[in-house]
Every structure is written in C-alpha cells, then in structure tokens.
Amino acid sequence: MPTASPLIIALDYSSLNAALCMADRLDPLRCRVKVGKELFTRSGPEVLDALHGRGFEVFLDLKFHDIPNTVAGAVQAAAEQGVWMVNVHAGGGRRMMEAARQRLERHGLSTRLIAVTVLTSMEATDLAEVGIAASPAEQVERLAMLARDSGMDGVVCSAQEAARLQGLCGDSFLKVTPGIRPAFAEADDQQRVMSPAAAIAAGSTYLVVGRPVTQAQDPMAALEAIESELAAKV
Ligand SMILES: O=c1ccn([C@@H]2O[C@H](COP(=O)(O)O)[C@@H](O)[C@H]2O)c(=O)[nH]1
C-alpha cells in the first residue's frame, strides 16, 4: 500500500551500507526515499533492489539531460528497475522530454516522469551567469509549461514557485520540492527554501528532505518534528 505521506527522504550517502542503515530506521508507510547521483554511482542498481525489498517506493533522481534517444533509453532502464519516479532536466527541451514519455508509453511503463526546472540551489545571479535573464520564478514557470506540454507528470521546483504552478498547471501536475528547511535546519547550499508546513500550504505535492534529517544528530527526532509540523498544519 503506497504511503499517503508527502515526504521523500533523500538518501545522499556515499555507501550502500550507510544508505541502508538509514532506510532500516525509516518506515515505508511513512515516507518514500530518493536515490541520487552519489549513491547510485557508488552502489549501482543494487540499492534499488535493496530499497524495493524493504517496501519503499523510490524516486531515482539522476536528472537525465542528453539527446532524446539517450534519455529515452535511460528512463526506460530506470522504469524497468521498478522505480516509482524518475526525472530528466526540462532544459533538455521538448523533443527530449517527448521521447522519454513515448518510450515509457511504448513499453507500458507507469513510472512517474518529471522534469527539473531550476535547481533550488540557484538564484537570479546564477541564472544570469549562464545567460538566463529571467528570474528563477519566471524560468521555472516557462520550463514547467514546456514540461507539461511535453507530457511530463510534473516538475521539480522550489516550494516558492508551487502556488503559481498550481494555478497554471492544475492539481494533478506534480510539484516535487526540494529545498525544504524546517526552522531547526541550516539552508546549506540551498537558495530557494521553505519550511515543510509552508511548502504544503503553497501547493507542493511532495517534499524532498535530505540533510535536515540525514545529517541531524538524531535523524528520527528530526523526522518526527517534520511530521508533527505537517500534522499540525492539516
Ligand atoms: O532542484 C533540486 C533538485 C534536486 N535536489 C536534490 O534534493 C535533495 C535535497 O537535499 P537537502 O539535503 O535537503 O538539501 C538532494 O538530494 C538534491 O540533489 C535539490 O536539492 N534541488
């Protein structure tokens, strides 16, 4: 039975063992988990099998960004390993996203497919340096519309943009939001942040939480504090 929780815990660890130690403290009825570039590069698909075996739905966050044929193949490979959600970079463009969508459809694969808009670690000055004059909010909006029109199930954005996208793209368009920072946590390298309760109130569908839990002195206490904040909000 899939969890009703919006929480996705980012297992950003440098070894399979460390990631599974944390997974063994988590409850698949209370959260999903995310496997990103560091863990997957170190452990390979074994980590997916191990997490699936423990009952977790897994978001494979590899942010594919390449020519359409290559991305379509990578998305197919991820979906065939049973992941719940996989992502690409919206900056790869319409043809790339459409190819990924078509590949999943052709093979009857129901993995959720979403696109990264503007990384939550970026602010306006970072965009300017890569030649984008728009504000993060404007660029997120542009890429979210493109992602929706290219057949994506939703986007990765910051919670600061979620309310606007809710109005533009509707309830069923997923807003997956990293950069979640409870009051007790540091921002770290994140620029566009929001608290868990505010993110849900703004229309985030899923909250991606990494270091505020995984690097906390007491990770379970940190997770419970976030759950309490969300429960108080409902
Ligand atoms: O725009 C993005 C896209 C992905 N991420 C990923 O989410 C987690 C956030 O971890 P924290 O420790 O809570 O900052 C991490 O795995 C990123 O790779 C993101 O932060 N922003």
From TrEMBL:
Q: What InterPro entries does the record point to? A: Aldolase_TIM (IPR013785), OMPdecase (IPR014732), OMPdecase_AS (IPR018089), OMPdecase_bac (IPR047596), OMPdeCOase_dom (IPR001754), RibuloseP-bd_barrel (IPR011060)
One family name in Pfam for this protein: OMPdecase
Q: What is its EC number?
A: 4.1.1.23
- Kindly report, in one word, the top-level EC class recorded for this enzyme: lyase
Arranged from A to Z, the UniProt key words for this protein are:
Decarboxylase, Lyase, Pyrimidine biosynthesis
**Any one GO molecular-function label of the UniProt entry:** orotidine-5'-phosphate decarboxylase activity
Pathway(s): Pyrimidine metabolism; UMP biosynthesis via de novo pathway; UMP from orotate: step 2/2
List the SUPFAM superfamilies: Ribulose-phoshate binding barrel
Residue limits of the Orotidine 5'-phosphate decarboxylase domain? 6-226
Residue numbers annotated as active site: 61, 63, 66
Q: Single GO cellular component annotation? A: cytosol
As its record notes, the protein acts as a catalyst of: orotidine 5'-phosphate + H(+) = UMP + CO2
Q: Which GO biological-process labels does this protein carry?
A: 'de novo' pyrimidine nucleobase biosynthetic process; 'de novo' UMP biosynthetic process
Please list the residues that bind substrate: 12, 34, 61-70, 120, 181, 190, 210-211
Family named by the database record: Belongs to the OMP decarboxylase family. Type 1 subfamily.
Q: Quaternary structure?
A: Homodimer.
Question: Its biological function?
Answer: Catalyzes the decarboxylation of orotidine 5'-monophosphate (OMP) to uridine 5'-monophosphate (UMP).
Listed name of the protein = Orotidine 5'-phosphate decarboxylase
Species of origin: Halomonas korlensis
